[in-house]
Every structure is written in structure tokens, then in C-alpha cells.
């Protein structure tokens, strides 16, 4: 799938996929929300509002209030690619979230996930 297709996907669709992934492994929607808030700076109210209207996934990250400075500490492989080696900044932000949800689903402690 090309990057533009990913950037145009509706945030609510991706959000539900992330939540389902975490819940299948015994984690909660609240934990996914906590990870998203930590990474992006959105409030819980902001997140809930974006689920009620179409928001392109790329815009979700482009308009994030305050991307966490510690996100650069996120290392590892997502979809066969090292997140720290991704050159396109927007795709790297997207993969940071993927990596955090992967860690959550694998049972990693929240204090370790939120570096």
C-alpha cells in the first residue's frame, strides 16, 4: 500500500484496528488511548471527537498538538522496517504509534512503553 493511501485512510478505521489488536491480547482501549495521547498530545476529548468525523490519518499526525519529544527513543521493527531508519517523517510518526501498540499488545509495562 502506498504512503498516500495510508495518509488518506480514516483515522477512526485505523484506531479501531489498533484497539482490536490490543484487546485481542488482553489490553484495553483506555491503554491505547493513553499511548496515543502520550505520543501526539491530543486530549481524550480530541480523540473521541475525531472518531465522530472523518479525519485522514495523515492529518491526524500533521495536526497533532505536541508530538512527544521522547518518541525518538522508540526503536525496533514494525512491518519489517526499523522505525528509527524511516526517512519520511510522517510515515515515521505513524510507525511510532504502530510500534507502541505492538509493545502494548505484547504485554510490555506501560511505564516502559511511555519512555
Record the SSE blueprint.
Elements: H1 3-8, H2 11-24, H3 29-40, H4 44-50, H5 57-62, E1 77-78, E2 81-82, H6 89-105, H7 110-113
Antiparallel strand pairs: 1-2
Residue runs with pLDDT of under 50 for 5 or more positions? none
Query: Can you summarize the main beta sheet?
Result: 2 strands, antiparallel
Instruction: Give the proportion of residues in helices.
Output: 55-70%
Q: Tell me the β content.
A: under 5%
- The shape is globular
Terminal Cα separation, in Å?
30 Å
Nutshell version of this structure?
With 115 residues, the chain is mainly alpha-helical. It has helices at residues 3-8, 11-24, 29-40, 44-50, 57-62, 89-105, 110-113, and strands spanning 77-78, 81-82.
Report on the architecture of this protein.
This protein is mainly alpha-helical and 115 residues long. 57% of the residues lie in helices and 3% in strands. It has helices at 3-8, 11-24, 29-40, 44-50, 57-62, 89-105, 110-113; strands spanning 77-78, 81-82. A two-stranded antiparallel sheet has the order 1-2. A hairpin with a 2-residue loop joins strand 1 and strand 2 (81-82). Helix 2 packs parallel to helix 6. The longest helix has 17 residues, at 89-105. It is globular. The termini are far apart.
